[in-house]
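Chapter review. Work through the record for L-idonate 5-dehydrogenase before attempting the end-of-chapter questions.
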Amino acid sequence: MKAAVVHGPEDLRIDELPDPVPGEGEVLIAVEWGGICGSDTSYFKNGASGTAQLKHPLVLGHEIAGRIARLGAGVSGLSEGQAVTVHPATLVGDGEMPERLKGRTNLYTPSRYFGSAAFDPHTDGGFSQYRSARADQIRVLPAEVTTEHGALAEPLGVAFHAVGRVGSLHGKTVLVNGAGPIGSLVVAAAKYCGADTIIASDVSDSALQIAKQMGADATVNVATGGELPQDVEIVFEASGSPRALGSVLRATARGGTLVQVGNLPGSEVQAALGDLVTREITWIGSYRFVDEITDAIEAMRDGLDVGPLITHTFELEQAGQALRVALDPASGSSKVMLHIG
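Structure tokens for L-idonate 5-dehydrogenase:
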């Protein structure tokens, strides 16, 4: 089979690899679509993503969907030909967690993830013509959800997890700072969950246009003199830029809540955080998801349209070009997709 394999910084190859064989309790997926994520571009650009360093070639990709090609021994309740996506996480060890964290498996450590170099050997992703996965990782797509859109259930699950961190949004005004793919999906998830008014802010007009198509009621371009609204009770920070934190905290209402869904750097940074104390803001993190990928699939079945997010499509053989487009701010890209099979 063909696979998009990163060998080092700026070294992406379409390699020929052995077809995987599903083991007991596993399913073989003929992958049709993959969505490029920030971790994929980071491995390609830097040979690392966060603290995870490439030590060996790695098949990229954790946002995938396709059809079941073969069932391993002992698998029931699934059938060949079904359209599916995959929950990309695997808990390593006994899976036991402290009582205070029961059910929050996204915080379990250690955990393997598709397309990640966090472990040695690395965990290959799904930018390949075939990928096997445990049957419990499989999420069947309803007829209303194409495999192209189903590949985005994973990042939409991230957005639903972030929205779920603050409880009910019914009737509330929400600010989403950062209108990249995750920010725009947070806009869509917040709208789906009943937010009354959603304001999206970014430094790119093209990103803001996508956020509007995803459900934003108003947009603010802070690079061209736009100012963030004031006294917003619920704010989602999706840019991951430390420089944005001061203005975002100032936009958050006294006693309000700021959800940090954009990944912040792991190194020391300068940020203006005084309002966190004086305004008694609740600042909470949001990391991946538990099983909100299932909520994402149901939302797409019910009409949540991720189509506006998709700006570019490439064939698997063009994966290097696709990654460069995803990295290029001038490309106007949001979600760049690979058509794999």
